Amino acid sequence: MKPQLKTEILAGISTFLACFYIIIVNPAILSQAGMPFSAVLTATVLVSAFGSLMMGIYAKNPIVVAPGMGINAFFTYTAVKGFGLSFEEALGAVFWSGVIFLILSVFKTREKIIQAIPDAIRHAVSAGIGLFICFIGFQNAHFIVDNPATLVGMAMFKDPVTLTFLAGLLFTGGLLVRKVSGAIIYGILFTTALAWPIGRWWGDASTINFGVSTLVNYTGFFAWPDFSLVGKADILGSLRYAYLPVIFVFTFTILFDGISTFIGLAEASGLKDPDGSPQNMRKSLLTDSFATLFAGLVGSSSGTAYIESAVGIEEGGRTGTTAITAGLLFLPFMFFSPVLSVIPSIASSIALVLVGSFMVIPLTKINWSNPEESIPSFLTIVLIPFTYSLSVGISFGFISWTVLKLITGKTAEINPILAIISVLSLFFLWL
Q1: 230 lies in a domain?
Q2: Can you say whether residue 223 is alpha, beta or left, with left for phi > 0 and alpha for psi between -120 and 50 degrees?
Q3: Between these two residues, 79 and 270, which has the higher pLDDT value?
Q4: What is the C-alpha separation between 327 and 409, in angstroms, rounded?
Q5: Within a domain: residue 225?
Q6: Beta bridge partners of residue 65, listed in sequence order
Q7: Could you give the C-alpha distances from 122 to 113, 219, 306, 330, in angstroms and in order?
Q8: Whether 79 contacts 90, CB under 8 Å
Q9: Angle (nearest 5°) at CA 364 between 253 and 411
Q10: What is the pLDDT of residues 22-80, one digit of tens each?
């Protein structure tokens, strides 16, 4: 096997291991909207495989596409439980948001939006995403936990799960420092091996609930796929006037989540076209659009590019082979989804924490001595993880940039497209 091909395959495996959690988490959230868990799991695999393969084959980018976190919560708790849509109508709203994405992509509107974003905000988005995925990693590992007094806090240091996570984190960090190829995969496997005995040495693993109870509570490896949600979207029913805000939020959120992810990954990795735009942007955006449209048809919330793709990029993934590898790895889990529980959350979370450190590198390109640039950048950086939303963080970046230019009388420096986006961002935040 050629060295570059081996690197791309290892990168694809690394990315898959960093984001495979979506196969379990997405059904867990959407099932609360009344959808069958097994059917959503099948739909999640289909969207992830379809989107990632299209990204690799058509857009030739090392970026995984899968149902987005955050938007699945909006689907369940706002669209269905808040606005009162049936899950069939909510799937129809996802479909229509995909149609809107597609139209915006065909007419290059999304590309124009990206070109209108100031360089400082682009750098800030990359750093904000880095902090975001690091925060997600610490949360998934249960290293950072709820604290009634301070909102968040650290888990007990003497807890065996915490100690195992830290051991894996330092081991993987050491491999990265020594520039070992496949370091993140080795780190995940090493931490998985350390985690297995926790349930036997420190009591019943099922009471720990940190994804380390597989060998204690073995239930088998095989499960048949469930296609009962395919074609269930109520496409016409979702077009009621009262439901239009739902379609708008689906559209806005995935639009800016996708843009944020592409910009952040491009800034952190250098995967750019000659004009400075993210690599193969138009085809990548079209892929994002089709993934969302496809998601509505097969029974899932919107598909989007995944920030965890940074894990594979850091491992050396630079071509579509990385995304193709990850996409193919999703498919068997329509049948072998229980196997995923073998890898505990504390193992896969290590990749997110470490990759987050690499994504803050663009911070050095921001002119921190200029408040017109530093204030919008800072708000973007901190609000992405603090609000747990890419869309909210970048929206405040747009708005603050535009307002500061208005206050200083530098209206000529405001890109008309950015001004329109800022107004739409205000509307989005108001909803």
Answers
A1: no
A2: beta
A3: 79
A4: 49
A5: no
A6: 305
A7: 12, 46, 17, 31
A8: yes
A9: 60
A10: 887 788 779 889 999 889 999 999 999 999 999 999 999 999 999 987 688 778 877 89
Q: Which two tokens mark 89?
A: 């109508």
Tokens 């987005």 belong to 68
Last residue of a domain, one of 308, 331, 362: 362
Confidence grade of residue 113 (pLDDT, cut at 50, 70, 90): confident
**Strand, helix or coil for residue 270:** coil
d(CA 120, CA 224): 49
CB atoms within 10 A of CB 164: 24
Alpha helices (H) in 31-177, listed in sequence order: 37-54, 71-73, 87-106, 109-116, 119-140, 160-177
Asked if residue 309 and residue 424 are part of one domain, the reply reads no
The size of the chain, in residues, is 431
**pTM as predicted:** 0.73
Summarize the confidence of residues 366-385 as an average pLDDT.
94
Determine how many CB atoms are found less than 10 A away from the CB of residue 62. 32
Note the pLDDT tens digit of each residue in 199-225: 544 444 433 444 444 443 445 567 788
350 neighbors 191 (Cβ within 8 angstroms): yes
Burial of 158 (0-12, 13-18, 19+ CB in 10 A): exposed
| Average pLDDT value for residue range 154-183 | 86
Q: Are residues 259 and 377 in the same domain?
A: no
Name residue, tokens 């899968």: 66
Q: Is residue 276 domain-shared with residue 346, that is, in the same domain?
A: yes
For tokens 């970026």, the residue is 63
Number of folded domains in the chain?
A: 2
151 dihedral zone (left: phi>0; alpha: psi -120 to 50; beta): left
Structure tokens at 314: 């850091």
* 208-211 LR contacts (CB < 8 Å, sep 24+): 208/161, 210/141, 210/142, 210/161, 210/344, 210/345, 210/346, 211/341, 211/343, 211/344, 211/345, 211/346
Residue of 295, 311, 312 lying closest to 303 (CA atoms): 295
